[in-house]
Amino acid sequence: MNEYYDVLVVGAGPAGLAAAQAATSHGARVGLIDAQATAGGQVWRHDVRHAAPSLARRSIGGALTHSRVDWLARTQVVAVETGSLFVEDPRRGSRLDYGALVLATGARELLLPFPGWTLPGVTGAGGLQALAKQGWPLAGRRVLIAGSGPLLLAAAATAKRHGATVLGIYEQAGADAVRRFAGSLWRWPAKAIQAALLRGQLAGVPYRCGSVVRRALGDSTLRTVELEGPHGIEQVPCDQLAIGYGLLPNVELAQLLGCELRWEGAHPQVSTDIWQQTNIDTVYAAGEVCGIGGRDSARVEGAIAGHAAAGARSAAMALQPRRRHARAFAEALRTRFALDARVYALATPDTLICRCEDVALSDMDGYTDTRSAKLATRCGMGACQGRICGAALAELGRFSGGGQRPPLFPARLSTLGDTDFFPLATIEE
Ligand SMILES: Cc1cc2nc3c(=O)[nH]c(=O)nc-3n(C[C@H](O)[C@H](O)[C@H](O)COP(=O)(O)OP(=O)(O)OC[C@H]3O[C@@H](n4cnc5c(N)ncnc54)[C@H](O)[C@@H]3O)c2cc1C
Predict the structure, then answer these.
(1) Check whether domain 2-107+248-334 has CATH 3.50.50.60, yes or no
(2) 28 contacts 7 by C-beta, under 8 angstroms
(3) Which pLDDT tens digit goes with each residue over 75-89?
(4) Domain ranges for the chain
(5) Second label for 384, Cα 20 to 30 Å away, from 215, 253, 313, 410?
(6) In 3D, which of 233, 300, 288 has the Cα closest to residue 264?
(7) Taking 60 as the threshold, does the pLDDT of residue 68 lie above it?
(8) Which molecular function GO terms apply here (predicted)?
(9) Which CATH fold topology does 111-245 show?
(10) How many percent of the chain have pLDDT more than 90?
(11) 47-67: per-residue pLDDT in tens?
(12) Which of 42, 72, 145 to mutate to test the pocket of ligand 1 (most atoms within 8 A of CB)?
């Protein structure tokens, strides 16, 4: 299949949905792609048991039901060429040509290895949310939430709504940093209301600052979590640990396209101008792929990108004050929830760093670049293609992630063979 879109949007989270709606308001024909079966991205992930918030329903409905939007669910970008994306859905591979492309590929969790992090019963904080929303049973389970940032509150609220007993939220940032962050929320009233609502839903759940998970202990499953807090070390028996150390932009597609990146600590994000345009004229980027900023920032950047990609810069210009205001929140998040040195020292030599291929941290000794470590140990060669272990190694200061080459995700051979876009003959032996 070959299709042409005036504006092609990758990612149907808040940024991509806003981009699609903005572009159609100028008459553009829009293609909206997402690897997931339902639109909404991370924050509005479809919940099989609970209705979506009204803003999510309006945003999703507004974009997907528009006659000029083609909604391409369960569609993953595999490879790129100037002006085209090669995608795969459950049935076939296709080529999608575009006048302008908007990358709204969002973010994923940063997972930092510690002893026991691969035990059944241990997941990311957002990972637990995703499982619960997809119907994984949590009722009656004792859940401990840990790591850093406001996502912990959202994860705890989801777990509680799905019937879990939330034993506590253990935030690694110190009490002073958290207090200052909370004290600055009046500048973003919508965030202040969101935080107050979450605290209301979590009444009675302890929130401990300056606390780090040292180990997860168990046999065939998690039994106990060992924490280090301001009052020393404690062990908490539980069934489930949900732990996340913040988010990382999904820049792989942007990298493959040749977009310029800038670095925030150990991790890259896509660099754009005020129109959300990258260094490539036809490629725009919006939302968390441009740096972690939350839902509101993603929505306004998505709208700017959609207007600009459809050639309506005056509409995009009108949104600039909202964008600056929303991005200031991102800066507050970054400084107040900076990671404590303790979290970098938790992995021991035999802690698995690559859980897809069972590679231990000590197996990385002696390697100074991703490629040689990967070739010798298979680290990063599993299902996640280095998205988890590569980010962890960069964060631990070992070495940063390498470049990208197609296929971006493991793809079916039939898909690759279907097209001259990615001829099988080019695959190296
Ligand atoms: C696991 C997780 C849970 C979160 N939960 C919350 C929460 O409860 N509350 C909250 O306020 N914030 C939450 N966040 C933060 C959230 O990411 C943002 O606030 C908001 O969703 C960002 O919007 P976005 O549109 O930039 O990206 P996202 O919402 O992340 O959307 C990006 C979309 O792009 C798709 N995609 C990415 N790459 C490709 C590709 N190559 N091909 C096809 N599709 C692709 C993804 O499937 C995804 O649907 C969560 C983040 C994560 C990682």
Answers:
(1) yes
(2) yes
(3) 999 999 999 999 999
(4) 2-107+248-334, 111-245, 348-395
(5) 215
(6) 288
(7) yes
(8) oxidoreductase activity
(9) FAD/NAD(P)-binding domain (3.50.50)
(10) 83
(11) 999 999 999 999 999 999 999
(12) 42
